[in-house]
Amino acid sequence: MGKSMFGQFFGVLMVIFIGWVFIASDPAERMDRACRPVEWSGNMAVSLVALTYPSGQHRTQTAFDNLDYGCQYSLWRLFYESDYLAAPGQGGGSSTPPAELPESE
Known about the structure:
This protein is mostly helical.
């Protein structure tokens, strides 16, 4: 009974999360929402590192920022790259997304 109940609870949470992702009004917001768990886990990891090893906080934040960017870039390539490349005036040969990862200090 316990495993079944946990599975059902997890399933309901997944359905709610997927619905939350798809009700976003534009593709950028959908990609941001789909990758939000990376951001949430990054916040948790940075907090734990700040408590236990403060000098590693910046490296941990940078690593999770890169993971978040990688998540969004992967989704962009999977769902939107072909439309971007087919659009008039895009050069037809570029495979880079419109947004770049900001430089870390």
